[in-house]
Design a protein that fits this description.
This protein is an alpha/beta fold. The chain contains eleven helices and 13 strands. The structure holds 6-O-phosphono-beta-D-fructofuranose.
Length: 340
């Protein structure tokens, strides 16, 4: 068996742990040959295939990012591209492909299966918004990064008697903002699942500032006011999704105007996807990689690996994609206990 692996979509800490696990288990347990496809599905179209002997994955477990590179390239963008992908996979004698990616990548991989490509998916996103799996690797690292930022923002907010607004990633869900907000002791957390009211926010902050001189507000990039919509940056990505961002600045402007309290914004952006994965994500990513190889060995193609409780199970890609896992309302209620 010649097994290929590609990483697609936004990068996230833990990708290299998956690559390492796939190569080591495929080679050592099954004596298969491993091949890396560069830059997601783009490398399949341009013919960028590299051999992955076990020494090629030595020392990458702790490294952030992906040694293969990634992209948001869609292999189905047009007939010619798809034909080139299929030709190159045949030319390089690839028997199966492990696709590590988010919802968009997994859905594209499902379509490639219909064209005869044996695919096993590994769900990946810091957003933790893939409904079929309890959690995705990369999420806990992003939560830790945001929590560390909230801790640091506390000292400068307190020193300047300011309202510090921290905008997090998460696309259309608030998992990162909600979990990091709880861990960091945020005074308010705004998420897309709960459209907010400027009146209520400002009333709560005004009340708090009668007894406190600073506040920390964590806002997910997809959050929006009641009756409004998320702030986007215009262009669409290869899977037709808009880039998010900017709500933090709108929030700061409105709060400062209404309360006349200095408000400053930090947009963490890509810092949330960078650097070394936390231990939890290294372990989960390693488990995903080994499970994906076992699924391939059992011929469980057109499935992706999902965490259910303590178990990793293969889920049909068609069944497990297309549903966004919104932030848990019960967890939000816990967080609300500490607002204000
Ligand atoms: O899906 C992961 C993610 O980091 C989102 O949280 C964010 O909105 C998006 O990717 C950014 O996409 P890009 O890397 O294409 O700018």
């Amino acid at each position: 068996m010649r097994l290929a692996i590609l990483t697609s979509g936004g990068d996230c800490p833990g990708l290299n742990a998956v690559i390492r696990a796939v190569v080591r288990s495929a080679t050592d347990r099954h004596q298969w040959e491993c091949v890396g496809i560069k830059n997601g599905w783009k490398g399949a179209a341009t013919g960028e295939f590299i051999p992955l002997p076990t020494y090629a994955v030595s020392g990458i477990l702790y490294r952030g990012g992906t040694i293969l590179g990634t992209s948001r390239f869609n292999p189905l963008q047009d007939g010619e591209t798809t034909a080139r992908v299929l030709e190159n996979l045949t030319l390089h004698r690839i028997n199966a492909v492990i696709c590590v990616g988010g919802d968009g990548t997994l859905r594209a991989s499902h379509e490639m299966t219909k064209l005869g490509v044996n695919v096993v998916g590994v769900p990946k996103t810091i957003d933790n918004d893939i409904a079929a799996t309890d959690v995705t690797f990369g999420f806990q690292t992003a939560v830790q990064i945001v929590t560390d930022a909230i801790d640091r923002l506390h000292t400068t907010a307190e020193s300047h008697n300011r309202i510090m607004i921290l905008e997090t990633m998460g696309r259309n869900t608030g998992w990162i903002a909600l979990c990091a907000g709880i861990a960091g002791g945020a005074d308010m957390i705004l998420i897309p699942e709960r459209p907010f009211s400027y009146d209520k926010i400002c009333t709560m902050l005004a009340e708090r500032h009668k007894r406190k001189s600073f506040s920390i507000v964590v806002v997910a990039e997809g959050a929006f006011p009641e009756g409004g919509k998320a702030v986007t940056l215009g262009e669409l990505d290869a899977f037709g999704r808009p880039r998010m961002g900017g709500i933090g600045y709108e929030l700061a402007h409105e709060i400062e105007k209404r309360l006349n309290i200095e408000s400053r914004v930090t947009v963490l952006g890509y810092v949330q996807r960078g650097g070394t994965p936390v231990a939890y994500d290294r372990i989960l990513a390693t488990r995903f990689g080994v499970a994906a190889v076992e699924a391939a060995a059992e011929g469980k193609f057109d499935h992706f690996i999902a965490l259910r409780g303590e178990d990793l199970i293969p889920v049909p890609i068609a069944d497990g994609t297309g549903q966004t896992k919104m932030a848990d309302p019960k967890l939000f209620e816990v967080a609300e206990t500490f607002f204000g």
